[in-house]
Amino acid sequence: MAEEKGLEQLKKEAAEKAKAAAAAREKGAASAKVKEEPAEKAKPSPNQHILDKYVQEIENHLGKEILEDSYINRLSKDIPTLVAKPDTYRKVAELLKYNEQLAFDYLSELHGGDFETHMEVYVHLYSFTNQQAVALKVKIERSNLEIPSLVPLWEGANWPECETYDLLGIRFTGHPDLKRILLGEEWIGYPLRKDYEPYDVEV
Amino acid sequence: MIQELLQSSPGLLNLGIFSLLAVLLLFVVLGFVTYGILSERKVMGFMQMRIGPNQVGGRWALLQTVADVLKLLIKEDTIPKVADRPLYIIAPVIAFAPAFMVLAALPFTDKFQFADMGIGLLYYIAVSGITTVGIVTAGWASNNKYALLGGMRAAAQMISYEIPLVMSVVGIVLLTGSLNLNEIVEAQKNIWYIVLQPVAFIVFLIASVAELNRVPFDLPEAESELVAGYHVEYSGFRWAMFMLSEYVYMFAMASLTTILFLGGWHPLPFLGFIPAAVWFALKFSLVIYLLIWIRVTFPRLRADQLMEFGWKVLLPVALANIFVTALLKELFSMF
Amino acid sequence: MLGLMKGLGYTMKNLTRKKVTYDYPNKPLPLPDRFRGIQKFYPEKCIVCNQCVNICPTDCIQLTGKKHPDPTKRGKLIDTYDINFEICILCDLCTEVCPTESIVMTNNFELAEYSRDELFKNLEWLDENDENIRKVNKV
Amino acid sequence: MIRTEEMLLNVGPQHPSTHGVFRLVIKIDGEIIKEATPVIGYLHRGTEKLAEDLQYTQIIPYTDRMDYLAAMTNNYVLCHAVETMAGIIAPDRAEYLRVIAMELGRIASHLVWWGTYLLDIGATSPFLYAFREREMIINMLNELSGARLTFNYMRVGGVKWDAPEGWIQKVHDFVPYMREQLEGYHQLVTGNEIFMSRVKGIGSYTKEDAINYSLSGANLRCTGVKWDLRKNEPYSIYDRFDFDIPVRQDGDAWARYHCRLEEIEESLKILEQAVEQFPQDGPILAKVPKIIKPPKGESFVRIESPRGEIGCYIASNGKKEPYRLKFRRPSFYNLQILPKLLKGENMANLITILGAIDIVLGEVDG
């Protein structure tokens, strides 16, 4: 028993050492990155005008204060990103689809994420007519996990919304057939939530 | 010999001899079927860049099918709980028995034949039709949805294709003037009917493939659609009976094709020194090979296309063939 | 009709072509050197650095070390080393991180056993698994 | 008047033509499908949840298991996402190796599709011919990565192994061989009247439907949308190659069949050029820290897998594990249109339509 404990101790120590070493290395890498970053930030993104166009279009049609935020996501190939509010999300989406300047006819991706303070739905849209892309995000209160469904606009949102509901518990109102698509109706809890406790710990 | 037996007065001895011969034939046919299956697997394998079976019985797997059948015979016999038990049990027998019954009418050589019937051809077609009943029964009695679909497909298909099959041989009957298979073969002494009746041959070949439920007409057991179709619930020796009946029919149909179109046991000119039995076997193998070859190459038809093809293409062509044959025969006999 | 004939021609042509199947259980499969099979473990090389345990995506490696019996020498010796092949996905990450190449891949891949318990391979077993060892382990 | 009853039929989860554990509950009247409800999730392994506790390098083997017919593209999409976030640029030689590996995988995947699709339609031989060629590709990839399907070959910033000796030559020799075999495929199947009658006009949808249902890959291109991420949003080094995007207008199974077979030809073109341009030497891994920590933020990248757009979304909080990882799995999106296509079709067409979508269940269920 004592010996085992000793071993445990040793193991821990070794792990900690490795961790420390890794951290040191990380620091080096991070600092190197920091040096590069300011230079990069100086020049505006090539997609800035596209974002401006989107925002302008939305403000023209729906008024100001519709969007929570809008920015260029430099980490994601400079994609223009719009953040809608839960109550304006559907309106923005509708405009994105039907406005001729925007005409986002293709829903490439829809998924949710749990960010502990809030949940998020991320939608990646593409317009074949204008050859441009946009990311639409919406932050939802954890207390009221309900946003309008996008299925009436893009059929392709059907299963992804089911999946989001299945794994995160976000309810999409107006979805034609919202069901737990992967896990089955008898599953308890929403696994991708950060506070999810596996029901059967040791399988 | 058979003729004498048939004409002699009934008695226990006759019964015994008949039974003995029947069993003998059964084994002969089973032997053929065994190697028919093996050759099919081997040829298929070779065409598909594989070696095929090569484990049981040497490099050529000569005992593979024997082992397979033995395995099937000793396998557990499962009957679904909600199946219609009596029908489920009797269905393989209904499908299997006619397959052997038709063999009686086939003249393999001028001497080796069991029953020289005046209506041999009609007998073959009539009796082989009974198998359909067995298949439909199997599909229905299994109480399985896939089996039911398979059974229904089989019924529709086999009834539809029976008609062009019969119609295509009417031309031959017209030319020969007889339904007797022996006489049909005799009539081909100089020239085979495949030359005189090429259209009929093609119609007959297609219809016979459909009758045999083989690719491209294997809809009743389409494994990619209906899993296994009518025999999905069958296992062990019951399933073996379906399988064997299928292959016995293949044997019978190939023999019939040989008899009707390829001149039976008649040799090619100048090659008369080769025995008749060998000639028959050669031609028969050729037909079998053709069937296998078709199976390797083609995809499956769809049910509605199959029906359309049968009724709208094959039947009119067969009817036209009869008409033209009759016309030509009259014209030639006039001069 | 022409298409059907062409197809028949193609299958006929293949009848005589060279066969491509493997005679597998009789002849071993030809495998490249890099093939990732069951690991071989060299206990004498191991420095008990725990990196393989940490990198394993399925947590299938367990090891314990002990103090070097010779008090003058530093470092540790390996005591037990187990890989659970029920969950090992042979992803090669353990051999990739190992600084001393004390764990390497072999070309052996046949893991069929009668019981799941036998899939739990210990140090001795992994040490004896010394056939077809991969020659090049690091780029 | 004959009264017919509708019947509920479970196609799958164990069925030879669902290509995995996929269940389709269909309501049929005779052989006509009145309604079809797909049921998925039998192969759900929670990759995204598992990934939240894993380092980026450790996730790569998990991506192998999603679309197991073209694992190289899956490897790539994850590495690409991390690289985009962390601003890592893989060395040239590594990119060439990646492209060669991915294109080989694409050919292998389409070959499997071709073979199994013909198997669905009832022809057995094409399957074996396709696997003959696929085996060669698998063997090549085995030599390269050390595994036949679950390659785990790519790393963030490069690849794990350099090409073994003579390997590039092997790929070079494979291209003309494969072209020759493709000829044979067309001879065997493409002109076959039975095959044509089975697929022409079956399961067709319009361009608008395809876009609306978020279809991608050959399923989208068969309706006339000339869209291929390799060309339209070039990633890796695809802008250095000259190739076409095969497009068809009809949107039926026949069009998809042609799109896929032509894609094989285009991939061969890419392979040919990649082998020619392959750099003599150079590193195969960029200078990356041993433990990769992308900066805080999120990123979504998409690339062209054989089945369509495969995307990877990473939300990072600057730690060595992703905070949230999500894969856009093309099969999952492509399968959505199935109930619409099946309505009013008959049983035999069900298989033709499902097969033409080309799904991999490992990917559908994630």
Which key phrases capture this entry?
heterotetramer; A: 203 residues; alpha/beta; Beta Polymerase, domain 2; five-stranded mixed beta sheet; two-stranded parallel sheet; 4 helices; disordered N terminus; D: 366 residues; alpha+beta; Cytochrome-c3 Hydrogenase, chain B; three-stranded antiparallel beta sheet; 15 helices; 8 strands; 48% helix; globular
Description:
The complex is a heterotetramer of chains A (203), B (335), C (139) and D (366). Chain A has a domain at 48-146: NADH:ubiquinone oxidoreductase Nqo5 subunit (Beta Polymerase, domain 2, 2-Layer Sandwich). Chain A contains 4 helices and 7 strands; from the N terminus they run H-H-E-E-H-E-E-E-E-H-E. Chain A has helices at residues 2-42, 48-62, 89-98, 158-168, and strands spanning 67-73, 79-84, 106-114, 118-127, 132-141, 146-148, 171-173. In chain A, the strands form 2 sheets. Chain A has a 5-stranded mixed beta sheet. In chain A, strands 6-7 form a two-stranded parallel sheet. The relative contact order of chain A is 0.09. By secondary structure, chain C is of the alpha+beta class. Chain C has one domain: Alpha-Beta Plaits (2-Layer Sandwich). In chain C, 22% of the residues lie in helices and 17% in strands. Chain C is built from 4 helices and 5 strands. Chain C has helices at 2-15, 51-55, 93-97, 123-128; strands at residues 39-41, 61-67, 76-84, 103-105, 120-121. In chain C, a hairpin with an 8-residue loop joins strand 2 and strand 3. Chain D has a 3-stranded antiparallel beta sheet. Classes of the chains: A alpha/beta (203), B mainly alpha (335), C alpha+beta (139), D alpha+beta (366). Chain B binds chain C through residues 43, 46-51, 293-294, 296-298, and chain C through 4, 7-8, 10-12, 14-21.
